[in-house]
Structures
1.
Amino acid sequence: MKYSFRNDYSELCHPEILEALLKASKEQNSGYGLDVHTENAKNLIKEKLETEDCDIHFVTGGTQANLSVISYVLRPYEAVLACSTGHINVHETGAIEATGHKVYTSEGVDGKLTTQDIENALKIHADEHMVKIGMVYISQSTEIGTVYSYSELKALYDYCQQHQLYLFIDGARLSSGLAASDVKLNMFKDLCDVMYIGGTKIGLMSGEGIVIFNDQLKPYFRYHIKSKGALLAKGYSIGIQFERAFQDDLYFKMGQHENALASLLTEELTMLGIKMLSESSTNQIFPIFKREHVEKLKEIYDFELWEDLGEEIVIRFVTSWATTKEACMELIEDIKKIIN
Amino acid sequence: MKYSFRNDYSELCHPEILEALLKASKEQNSGYGLDVHTENAKNLIKEKLETEDCDIHFVTGGTQANLSVISYVLRPYEAVLACSTGHINVHETGAIEATGHKVYTSEGVDGKLTTQDIENALKIHADEHMVKIGMVYISQSTEIGTVYSYSELKALYDYCQQHQLYLFIDGARLSSGLAASDVKLNMFKDLCDVMYIGGTKIGLMSGEGIVIFNDQLKPYFRYHIKSKGALLAKGYSIGIQFERAFQDDLYFKMGQHENALASLLTEELTMLGIKMLSESSTNQIFPIFKREHVEKLKEIYDFELWEDLGEEIVIRFVTSWATTKEACMELIEDIKKIIN
Amino acid sequence: MKYSFRNDYSELCHPEILEALLKASKEQNSGYGLDVHTENAKNLIKEKLETEDCDIHFVTGGTQANLSVISYVLRPYEAVLACSTGHINVHETGAIEATGHKVYTSEGVDGKLTTQDIENALKIHADEHMVKIGMVYISQSTEIGTVYSYSELKALYDYCQQHQLYLFIDGARLSSGLAASDVKLNMFKDLCDVMYIGGTKIGLMSGEGIVIFNDQLKPYFRYHIKSKGALLAKGYSIGIQFERAFQDDLYFKMGQHENALASLLTEELTMLGIKMLSESSTNQIFPIFKREHVEKLKEIYDFELWEDLGEEIVIRFVTSWATTKEACMELIEDIKKIIN
Amino acid sequence: MKYSFRNDYSELCHPEILEALLKASKEQNSGYGLDVHTENAKNLIKEKLETEDCDIHFVTGGTQANLSVISYVLRPYEAVLACSTGHINVHETGAIEATGHKVYTSEGVDGKLTTQDIENALKIHADEHMVKIGMVYISQSTEIGTVYSYSELKALYDYCQQHQLYLFIDGARLSSGLAASDVKLNMFKDLCDVMYIGGTKIGLMSGEGIVIFNDQLKPYFRYHIKSKGALLAKGYSIGIQFERAFQDDLYFKMGQHENALASLLTEELTMLGIKMLSESSTNQIFPIFKREHVEKLKEIYDFELWEDLGEEIVIRFVTSWATTKEACMELIEDIKKIIN
């Protein structure tokens, strides 16, 4: 196998982040995230968010972040509305339902919810014989590589606020989303109630930073993550990583890097006449190959089969912070050989 | 602050383990624990367990391990029996109950359950108006520093098997327990249905290895930990650590080291006329000081206040894999100055 | 308001059943369903089921029956497959999810699942990143008035058994379903693992009889319903009702009666040129009226608005055990006046 | 068997209540508690509560009432504090834990919690490593036949309000409690946040009336009980019963009746030299008999064995609304014969 384009979590972590862990390895630090590094990391993130008025909590993974936030925000008879392609609906083994809440889904457009989707959901859920929709869940960037624009997010959040719905943004691939959209980190405080800043998929060994903007959602969240098994004894191990990631704009540069390489791949593939399932501006792209070409490509590269169209197959290439331009160009060369 | 004896998770991780992470940082690895390092780690652990016939799953923390195992094993109307000092009863913020199960407690003796405790619990829970006891939970070493002997564990497991109860051993501090008791790792396969081998509290950055011996408890456990947010995308980050910990007996040596230093402290303190709350042979000791001496000691060392006896206070010293003999001797010297 | 065709639970209970309650009101009976009447009721039902080899438990309502059965049968990481029109998906306020389980839905055909639906669901849920489908839920009669034929049920159950899926039949309107289909009560033992025999919607004051055929699902179910608040202290109050309902074929006659009246309405409406949304052979029918006619009809009758088609509206008429032929004919006469 | 003193739910329901059901049996009523009888019942209860400012919801049983209220009020990381003898701790098969919440228990005095118990519980639960105590649960009358006085309840509620704890009163045996204590129904609005008025154990076929005084706990409770399977389609069947029970002071008279007979038994037994386990002023009494006398008594009467003291056994006699003075005197005569 020459290289894996299967996902963006194949490489342990960025060397600078490993270096930071190394540096801190002789220290004694307080447990449960009450240490200096975690404090620093929070302050650095708040600077980029351009607000002091938020609570930040670090947990280890995306499903954990999602289930912790959603089960904290919702009352027991409430459901979360998500796009049918949403991670919580498809790829979390019923983790949200396991906390007691229905995930109600809407088709959306390009992997994104619209205010129309929310309106429809509210219309259907009219009385106590149906769950109450209490929260809207979206992802930036989305599970299929698209991004919400500022105006789209603004419209959603305005709608949510008018209808007493909380808006939660899953930022598992936020770094890539930031690099691909006009929504910058300092805008989120006005665009949602709670979000998480993904680390695992962008160069941290593990770690996601949950950011709570809405005052009503702040109290006792530490109790809640503890009860979900998400409060790490060595919380500083994540604090150290985020501390480094938010210095020198490393967090942002990694997303820019992977997006640039994904764009490069898209351009080159397009020049080869390969069509794409969707217009992605992030680090996930979805080219469509003939079945026989996919077979050959599988022998030398690792990637995900996305959708079987019969004679053709949609595959997914994901670039990461660690992917090199060389690996991408070699892939293109190999594809050229295969399809010609 | 000269040094913290507050707990055994103040230092990031053993240098050899960090080195192993460093070495693997250029690789691409498969996600979700389906990588080579995790495979190696499992094989190394199985060698020490002296059985191939078990399933091993790595998760990030102790509460996560406990809630995942217990909610997997129990049926919805069943409860787990624990010692009243048990970690799941006291210090997990209702994590087990949050998965839907009562923690029924018994006083126990020296932090340990006896067959008599189980018998009493079964007698009380006689019909469908009370929860059914489905599992017994114990810790090795216990939350108050004691250890079960082989014959004690054998008696418990025999009793459990005769009464259709699963036995689960929480090994958050297993390394210390192994060094302090006559129960070696190759014996556990005959002493319980499921256990976990603690990493976070003995020199790993994070990670606990759940070991399932009972065939009935094996199927679909990966589905379950995914639904609890416990299946790490970068599972190999834990695999690498356990792989190293189980080479050169590093896992065992760390426990021996911390126990030896705790024994040293016990000896020295005893010679100074300090009494201990309990006879501990592990890395947690519970000396009893006069209130005014505790006040002075708090100014130079960090440790936990365990129990307020009025004029005297029980405190807890915990040694770790990283604690040095020098730090211990300095502590003793400082105590001498304070109490004389 | 002349009469309500809104549902089949507007009238308290059949006079014969009330009479039975009256007769037993001077007795002392054992609590929690351990009384003579409950015993008799079970035996009478078993006679009709033509098997001794099943466990029967009485609970008060349909949602309670559904949530008790489903949460008992499924493991925590498992989901139930239902038709998108299924009661558990639409009208139970997330009751199944509140017990921790996803309801995965398929479109189905005429409110009924097919083996193709199950096959599709299994294909999608291929690994541990998605819930495991553990059970198939269907209703007889369905939520939109249709019924499964014997061969349809047989095909479903065969498929389920081949794929280690449990099949659960919601019989909230079973009496009507029995009268409308070729599936008789003595056939169910070979057609599903567990079902419930609805009482509330067919002339009992309240009560549903859960029947467990599959031996694996029998143990400790009483513990489970107690933990769900479904084990009535005065269980005999339901036992008495089922005891009477299963004497003199009362249970069956009530369904025949309501179906006959629904058929009468269908015939008469068809003769008036009114179209029906679906071909229903049970006690729920779905005529399509012009909007203005619905407005007028609403002034004298109570019924449910089912679907707004713009100029036309689908409404639902439900007949019950208590509905009279006179009331139906008067309705027809009134409709004639309105539409002419 | 001459008579059962085993419990107060052996007889179906008071003849007047059955009469009311009979009268209403020809009517059509709206479903889900939105009917006239339920409305009347609520108004009659509010008159006795002397407040309009409360929400009332009827459900079928005590465990259902308890689990619905507690899981509605608590946040996911919160626990309820109960007396160790509390019904939710002992006899509900983990129903509260099944909704995700720990039941933390305190010994109490005479089956009653004190402010000291609450203070102790709060002291222990000091940070996010332990559940947060969110609610206090007590029963009036208690599970062992005692009652809280007005001043006791006032002290508890004052303490709860000062410490942001909700107070919930389980009134499964409220009628008996009202007759035995100085706390009358019009006082409860100032003594708790939520309570339930028990019906099943005092002459209703089934039904408990949950009363919510605290405005914060009112919204969306109907959604919640629906999601717990507790919203009856034929809600009016309970409404009719409570409507009748709260006419002519029937609800109160039934409690007075059963208490009077229990007092009579106590007096007579005391005169025979029989000692009682506790001083009960309600319908449950706990006489202590010699083992051999219990054996003989068991042959002619049904009652519960409460506690085995070795040579002696504590048994429980419960009187109900249906118990007659004749039955009590006959019991006394039979006891005389046995013990002499």
Note: The mean pLDDT of chain C is 97.
2.
Amino acid sequence: MKKHVLIIGAGGVGQVAAHKCAQHNRLLGDIHIASRNIKKCLAVIDSVHEKGALQNPKGVLKAHQLDAMDTAAVRRLIEHTGAQIVINLGHAFVNMSVLQACIETGAAYLDTAIHEDPEKICETPPWYANHEWKRKAICADRGITAILGCGFDPGVVNAYAALAVHEYFDTVDSIDIIDINAGSHGKYFATNFNPEINFREFTGQVWSWQNSQWRSNKMFEIQRTDDLPVVGKQTAYLTGHDELHSLSQNLNVPNIRFWMGFGEHYINVFTVLRNIGLLSEKPVTLDNGQQVVPLQLVKAVLPDPASLAPGYIGKTCIGNLVKGHKDGQAREVFVYNVADHVEAFAEVGSQGISYTAGVPAVAAAILIAQGTWDVQKMVNVEELPYQPFINLMNQMGLTTHLREAGQDDCLISFDLAELDAS
Amino acid sequence: MKKHVLIIGAGGVGQVAAHKCAQHNRLLGDIHIASRNIKKCLAVIDSVHEKGALQNPKGVLKAHQLDAMDTAAVRRLIEHTGAQIVINLGHAFVNMSVLQACIETGAAYLDTAIHEDPEKICETPPWYANHEWKRKAICADRGITAILGCGFDPGVVNAYAALAVHEYFDTVDSIDIIDINAGSHGKYFATNFNPEINFREFTGQVWSWQNSQWRSNKMFEIQRTDDLPVVGKQTAYLTGHDELHSLSQNLNVPNIRFWMGFGEHYINVFTVLRNIGLLSEKPVTLDNGQQVVPLQLVKAVLPDPASLAPGYIGKTCIGNLVKGHKDGQAREVFVYNVADHVEAFAEVGSQGISYTAGVPAVAAAILIAQGTWDVQKMVNVEELPYQPFINLMNQMGLTTHLREAGQDDCLISFDLAELDAS
């Protein structure tokens, strides 16, 4: 049985993961957290102690300085700590170096977002095939468990897609993943993560899987408005997202789209900044001769995303609207989670968006430790048993619900003893 | 008779002034243009030659490098050139040094905007009394002609106020100066003059003269919509402006307000930039350690105002809406000018806003040269005879019109022979 966890990354999601690992350290064993900036790791550890989050108060919880771009350094840290599960929550450029270190050491690998080449940001589909899936064969050869994209989206929504396909439909026509943050940080404007990355996602083309092929649109070109559980009427925009690629390959569904909610205010500010040229990564020359990258200045004047958590209120709603047929009848279900920013902050000191990304990663680590998900190959979440994952998240603070016309919304959970027996 | 002109400043308005002086150089004599950057002066001179604008082709037209903050340097240039009329179109910080040089040399002084102390931008009323009017006594003592604020607004609108008070009303209740630029530069966003100055005007309080006292409001707090000649329905916002101060002191009118037209798009962009902190003059520190003043970066990414002129289309409408009583009847008149960006560019190579500011300054210089306005003291435009000024501008490209309910709009001009005889 694998145990002992190394968390790479000490941002908002890393903090959630550290708290959640601490809450389950009788099973997970030693917990190590590493970042380029060890002070961030120490702050996370302080936060875990403040909340008294360690299930086994005598358990190991240690901070490490690490350049995760350096495969050898990651390998040495894995060996030094004896970690058998690596939860990679670092920035998007380190996936391949961390994965390589796991391959070399035999540790299980987990991440929550696709790899990005620093030189080729915003790559086009096929996304996972650009980097991750090129290591599928070696992972299978060496028996390496590598679970890709195991935050909320990608991650939980992949499990929801598998759930719908396997349990609610004979044929699925479309899966629309809808991601709404109806929370408010109380600032005039802020991004929920690094503005340099955040804005970059929306400046180019967006991709969707429609009629079993890739289709490209402009950002903010296509929108939908839904009346959603708890958060009510919300408008979301067609956006490209990692999981569209793996779902399009792993499930036989002709239409898979991702929709990200944006308020009019967000879009307006984004549009003004972009059109004026303030989101550019190319330096401009000021009258005084300074060379300045506009996007770096915008980052400097916007609130630090980490500073938003204490004042964040409201809820997120993320789910899959699935349409298809069952027993010859048209059917439509919405499988979703609602998370609360205030509750997340009270429990783990991060806001709700970090919470929804960090909890699934730790749930996956627990399932690896328990053996259920220790599959000794590279997989995306839709390829794994979704029942224990959904059950475990129900216990860990992310509940899964089902909305279907004519019925009350209900919690989804599984009687696993019965399932195991079947 | 004074002649020989020194123009200080080679921006858009300086260019208009140079062309207009050239068109009248049989009367005005030698024309000199000075700027910190002599290349700008040379470009203006090239433009004058390209248009064949010199009325006397053999007349003197020369460029000079000048730091106009340096009184001694200005005095030396006045002495060196033999200029007897100085048209100060430099930035707002040089008024007092240039005026002092005129006082020391006996040259007549003209400007188009109020003096600003570099350390005390956006001063509160009483504006002219803060700096200019402190030199009234010495100008009177030495017989120095100093005409303050002689562009369009302040300037022409001051003459319109005097015209209304003297010719159309027994008592005036209110003067609303409305400044609309209904032109389009075809860019997503641009300011019509230096963005650092432009934005600064609107970031604080705005002042108006109401019920015979100063009143303060926030920018964009109070708006009005008027159906105006040529430019149609336009929304304008209560703004502070130089001329409110002198008019409040020189005319017995209880309500004098200034309204600047802004499109919703302008206000939106301005609001986003301001609220995010990008209009700040205080340096911020980037991740790479650079210290950057946000407003300077915004200036660098916005189009150079001087670059807008070739593509500028549409018209400006600036005028005074005056309400009061005449012969016991309520009366309301709108005295206005409409200028055309394309026509201005074709004639003098600048857009319409520069044109409306530069032509009145040269008209004033001509009236000084002719003696009519060579009053040998410091005055604001409303204290001077408005008839010859309005007549002369009619000939120089800025026509004055009157709108009154129930009548067709008509040109305002005066039979000066008859006036002189009366």
Note: Chain A has two domains: 5-151+350-398, 156-345.
